[in-house]
Amino acid sequence: MVNPVVLIPARMASSRLPGKPLADICGEPMIVHVWRRAIEAGIGPVFVAADDSCVAAAVESAGGKAVLTRPGHQSGSDRIFEALGAVDPAGAFDTIVNVQGDLPTVEQATVRACLVPLADPAVDIATLATPITRSGEKDDPNVVKAIGTEVAPGRLKALYFTRARAPWGEGDLLHHIGLYAYRRDALRVFVSTPPSPLERREKLEQLRALEAGMRIDVMVVDAAPLGVDTPEDLERAREMLIGGLLR
Questions:
Q1: For 41-51, what is each residue's pLDDT tens digit?
Q2: Structural domain boundaries in the chain
Q3: Residue 223: is its pLDDT beyond 90?
Q4: Which of 72, 143, 158, 174 could staple 129 via S-S, CB 3.0–4.6 A?
């Protein structure tokens, strides 16, 4: 792992918050906040993989780089794979970090943490999780749980991801954070593999990788960034970022 690139998929057709990449937060589109935080992580060049020219224009007007991709992709992984071919057809980047375009509060350290497991050559994909502290989230199907076995302090080998409350018994439950780092070959294999039975059942894309025999390791971080999916989430993000600007 010597040359990472950060790709941020951005899709305008959100069912619960249409046009959310361009939603205003403190005077700037949300996608610009995400792009800026990815830049500040300092791990490599950052490109937004957009499905709309308005999103690309917003990023470029802020000084960023964007790639237009087909609007019909079924997942962010498919979108960033298309973008990767456009920005790096020669294959210079060997590691791809996928930062979701609806994480305007993601911290620099959180982005960087996703690279740590890839120092182990046995790991194909790395992702993140944080302990659940709010009791209501333990049974919330919108809070995906990561289940794994510890292989190093703060790092797990993933065994499963689920929307159910799991594992059973005493101990922490882990809230999965949808931020990934892929080896380039692992991303290629992943997007060329058909959706798996458990992926379709749980509606969790990462289960495709596990069912295909790929290894995913999970770094445990202190807190989950806010994912913006609803107008209420958007208002909360505004409050969080205004608070950060005033401190």
A1: 999 999 999 99
A2: 4-234
A3: no
A4: 174
What CA–CA distances, in Å, run from 207 to 8, 39, 69, 72, 135?
21, 29, 25, 22, 25
Give the pTM: 0.93
Region class of 27: left (phi > 0), else alpha (psi between -120 and 50), else beta: left
- Mention every residue, 6+ apart, whose C-beta is less than 8 A from residue 204: 144, 161, 162, 163, 198
Q: Measure CA of the first residue to CA of the last residue in the chain; give whole Å.
A: 36
Determine contact, residues 147/161, Cβ cutoff 8 Å. Answer: yes
Round the average pLDDT of the chain to a whole number and report it: 93
Report phi then psi at 219, rounded to 5.
-90, 135
CATH fold label, 4-234 = Spore Coat Polysaccharide Biosynthesis Protein SpsA; Chain A (3.90.550)
Q: Show contacts of 185-193: CB within 8 Å, 24+ apart.
A: 186/124, 186/125, 186/214, 187/77, 187/80, 187/81, 187/84, 187/96, 188/81, 189/214, 190/77, 190/125, 190/214, 191/77, 191/78, 191/81
